């Protein structure tokens, strides 16, 4: 049972490049979400999904897109990376009544 | 979700009980208190949660005051591996369509050998 798996663990992008951060969970959880964590700060919600085909914006959605075509996967897309998106990104999943399980994070640097 | 207030940092001697306080004076009747911790930039890890009764599991105990305006997380015998940032969060449970966990800056707990 792998839990929540994020890939890649580290990534360096040039300004303007695009990329997709992958998140997969094998616990059949309904809810999935993406957070970013900047140095010395708590986690901020980017986007979340309450089931396949359903997504919504969180606290800081600008510059990011998501989709949820399957229960297991919830990719986060950066369409045109900016230095302000340098951060550590965490994916989480849970069921309605359960605690959230987090991945180990993707450390992204935009130069 | 109600906001929480936690001390920025705390120290605790190894082997002693670590008591981490949290104020949530605007908590509503159907909001739970959750605790997570984050060890050295890893993904946050769930510890415990409760509504109004005290709770205990293999990791910690949670004491919630009778008026529910504050709570304390207790790590009974702290080890060096408990050094982490601890987040107190209050949220509705089973609130369909609202996944948001509001993380503040938490309490940085340092266990001293």
What is the residue-averaged pLDDT of chain B?
Answer: 90
| Class from helix and strand fractions of chain A | mainly beta
Main interface: chain pair and counts: A-B, 29 and 21 residues
Shape of chain A: globular
Low-confidence stretches of chain A: none
Describe this structure as you would to a colleague:
The complex is a heterodimer of chains A (111) and B (113). Chain A has 111 residues and is mainly β. In chain A, strand 4 (31-37) and strand 5 form a beta hairpin. Chain A has no helices and 11 strands. Chain A starts with a strand and ends with a strand. In chain A, the strands form 2 sheets. In chain A, strands 2, 4, 5, 6, 9, 10 and 11 form a 7-stranded mixed β-sheet that branches. Chain A has a 4-stranded antiparallel β-sheet with strand order 1-3-8-7, with no helix packed on it. Chain A has strands at 4-7, 10-13, 19-25, 31-37, 43-51, 54-57, 64-66, 76-78, 87-94, 101-102, 106-110. Chain B is mainly β and 113 residues long. Chain B is built from no helices and 9 strands. Chain B has strands at residues 9-13, 18-23, 31-38, 45-50, 55-56, 61-64, 70-75, 84-92, 107-112. In chain B, the strands form 2 sheets. A 5-stranded mixed β-sheet of chain B has the order 1-9-8-3-4, with no helix packed on it. In chain B, strands 2-7-6-5 form a 4-stranded antiparallel β-sheet, with no helix packed on it. Chain B is globular and about 40 Å long. In chain B, 32% of the residues are buried. The model of chain B has no long low-confidence stretch (mean pLDDT 90). The chains are: A mainly beta (111), B mainly beta (113). Chains A and B meet through strand 4, strand 5, strand 9 and strand 10 of A and strand 4 of B.
């Amino acid at each position: 049972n792998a839990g929540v798996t994020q890939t890649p663990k580290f990534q360096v992008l040039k300004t303007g490049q695009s990329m997709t951060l992958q998140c997969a969970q094998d616990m059949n959880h309904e809810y999935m979400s993406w957070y970013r964590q900047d140095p010395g700060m708590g986690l901020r919600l980017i986007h979340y999904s309450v089931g396949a085909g359903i997504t919504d914006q969180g606290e800081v959605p600008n510059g990011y897109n998501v989709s949820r075509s399957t229960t297991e996967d919830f990719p986060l897309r950066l369409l045109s990376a900016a230095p302000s998106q340098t951060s550590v990104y965490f994916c989480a999943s849970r069921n309605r009544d359960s605690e959230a399980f987090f991945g180990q994070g993707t450390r992204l640097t935009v130069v | 979700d109600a906001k929480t207030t936690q001390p920025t940092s705390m120290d605790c001697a190894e082997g002693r009980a670590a008591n981490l306080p949290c104020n949530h004076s605007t908590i509503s009747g159907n909001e739970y208190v959750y605790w997570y911790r984050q060890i050295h930039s890893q993904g946050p890890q769930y510890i415990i949660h409760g509504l109004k009764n005290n709770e205990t599991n293999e990791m910690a105990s949670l004491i919630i005051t009778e008026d529910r305006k504050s709570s304390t997380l207790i790590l009974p015998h702290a080890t060096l591996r408990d050094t982490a940032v601890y987040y107190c969060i209050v949220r509705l449970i089973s609130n369909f369509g609202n996944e948001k966990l509001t993380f503040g800056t938490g309490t940085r707990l340092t266990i001293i050998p």
